[in-house]
Amino acid sequence: MNDEFFMQRALQEAGRAFSEDEVPVGSVIVMDNKIVSRGYNQVEKLNDPTAHAEMIALTSAFNLLGGKYLPDATIYITLEPCIMCAGALYWSKIGRVVYGAKDEKNGFRKTVAINNPFHPKTVVTSGILEEPCAALIKDFFASKRGRK
Q1: pLDDT tens digits, residue range 31-87?
Q2: CA 114 to chain CA mean position, Å
Q3: Which of 11, 14, 76, 114 could cysteine-pair with 6, CB 3.0–4.6 Å?
Q4: d(C-alpha 44, C-alpha 24), whole Å
């Protein structure tokens, strides 16, 4: 199992969001090559602007593992995290952040002047399955505008 394998699992979560008419972002948290939690955007469903895929996956992992830190975990996210999610990931002390597509409009790189807003020990990898991750977002917004 590798980054592409786990990003495919995150894409499945993003597909769930798409089918529920949510912005299609998905995430999974992995420890020891096992998925310990999953999340997908549920902002509309829960009427909560903080119900991003990462936040849901983090909360689930904390509850499952009984702790608030994830130094031995990797989160796979289909879209570059926003500044809110980057902050939550910072406080979780997650070991690794892997994301697919860049988010030029709302991603952390737009609002943060430093390259890594995460914990100093967190390793960041971007561009894993970038094209399918970006295509899902583009397809979603094209469908919202009435064209495909």
Answers
A1: 999 999 999 999 999 999 999 999 999 999 999 999 999 999 999 999 999 989 999
A2: 20
A3: 76
A4: 12
Q: Which residue among the candidates 4, 22, 44, 54 is catalytic per the annotation?
A: 54
Give the amino acid at 83.
Answer: I
Nearest alpha carbon to residue 41 among 55, 29, 30? 55
* Cα radius of gyration (the chain): 14
Q: Quickly list DSSP for 59-120.
A: HHHHHHHTSS--TT-EEEEEE---HHHHHHHHHHT-SEEEEEE--TTTSHHHH-SSS--S-T
- Give the distance, in angstroms, between the CA of residue 113 and the centroid of all CA atoms in the same chain: 21
Could you confirm whether 20 is annotated as catalytic? no
- If phi > 0 it is left, if psi is from -120 to 50 it is alpha, else beta; for residue 46 that is alpha
